[in-house]
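Justification of computing resources. Each target in the renewal requires a structure prediction run like the one illustrated here; the chain below, 276 residues long, is used simply to show the kind of job we budget for.
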Amino acid sequence: MLNVKRKIIVLLLLVMLILYPLIIEPNFIIVITIVEVRLKNLPKNFNEFKIVHLSDIHFGEFHLKVRNDLVLNKVREVKPDLIVLTGDIVSNKRSIEDALDFVRKLASIARVIIVLGNWDHSSVAADVLLARLNLIENVTVLVNSHIIFSRNGEVVYLIGVDDPYTYRSNLTKALKNVPRDSVKILLAHSPQIINEAAGKVDLVLTGHTHGGQVVVPFIGPLFVPLPARFRRYTHGLFLVNGTYMYVSRGIGTSVLPIRFFAPPEITVIILKKNGS
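Resulting structure tokens:
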């Protein structure tokens, strides 16, 4: 009888070990990370400005619809002033309509600014995706360009580059005519942009890494899709030559439909004026 109980316990543990990374963590665990970023030249009307940062949603990879509903509900609860998506929205052509519907729902919450990632280029016709996204009210896609975001007469500059991972970024072009003393927030898919951006912008928001996606306790990620010199930027907040960079774990998965000790993440960036 004791042996039977042990076998049942072992079997249940094995089932959980399979279900947790395949079903539970990717779909039912979404961590909200709140990050305060203090900027000395932040206009006073942007103090406490709240940015929801999403990345790597990967529509088309295996996931349950409940995950997207959870994300939308959590974003609504945050009540952001701005939502940014840092690439890899889709993973295949069949998923475009689902992705567009999701972005429309986000745009009903707050203005949405998007940059493209490597999967957006490799899995679909990026120009088609770009055009469709730009047709959505309250949505802007930045491709090596910038916009001025105004609040009560004061402004910050939102800069977006095309995917650095596939060498499509052009930061010089994106920064053209942006005043040197302005607050500059850069959106890029991959943290590879940091060497070029450090010292030129105030804050960089990126994704791409999925936080390693599969992280072995006490060892670390099994794989980080970055050149060796950038692999320390797996996830979290970094300060490089006076520039803050946040690397999101993202929402979805790629290649393997699993997450292990790298749960999906919604990042809430709260801008603070130094001294406030």
